[in-house]
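Form 7-S
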Amino acid sequence: MGYTDYPQTIFIHLSDYYNSSEWTFMERLPPLKALRAFEAAARLESFNRAAEVLNVTPSAVSHQVKALEDAVGVRLFERLNRQVVLSPQGRAYLPAIRDAFEQIRVATDQLRPHSQVNALTLSVAPSFAVGWLMARLPQFQLAYPDIEVRLISSIEIEDFSRPDLDVCIRTGRGQWPGLRSYRLMAEELVPVCSPERAQSGTGLHCPEDLANTTLIHELPRLGQWRSWLAAAAVKGVDAERGPKFQGAAMAVEAAIAGLGVALANRRMVEAHLQEGRLVIPFDIQLPGDSAYYLVYPEERAGGKKIVAFRTWILQALESETPAQV
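Output:
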């Protein structure tokens, strides 16, 4: 072998080495889809709910999780009857995967233009967005002019592995695995209707008069009227009849239009009451079994824009006088 043969020989050997090393390294990394499926299923403790936020089928989530288990050689979930529970190995694995996704999100944010880095994306229940938040957002923008608010209307807890989502505001009991929650306000339900509906026919003078009017229902919480009637000790009213609407915001709009009587959180309809679009025919209040919460992942608790919004909204709610609530 001549002297001039060595560079080519060395190059070939080094090329084979690097290609082989890179291949070995990549082979050890689980597929991103499998990791996302595992993180969502672990956080939500359900393959079905993970499928909803990932916009795939439950069988696809199950397949991806099984592929990950095969790749790492351990069982990450215990499959029980119609339920999945994290195994000890899965519980130990989850924080590292969650942190890795968060590091990718932060690194990606840092690459984006300044206006995108300072965007705060809120996924908010429609009733809270329309009934309370929208009227007060200008105050937040004045306090934090460098943060661009982006508002999404939704009733489901979103997939926080999405890089474009920061916080949610939802109704519930404050218990979402892997998520930090702050109680904003209780749900205190009162009957509301248009002034014309309250005065039409024989009028609404006592709760028993509801037997002669239309009850408006909110999906998926169809038991609210039954609970309110029981709390008011009212009998002889069919708690199931009447039109059904998806969400509280639509039910309130139907009441404003004069369709019937709806149950609404008093704080969410305060502006309608003050401006005469709605009235409360019977001031009998039903304490709700849930409340509105500000929700986001534990690992994002120190994010500056999230801290800013959390501080502002909690102070805004605390500063409202009893007359406003």
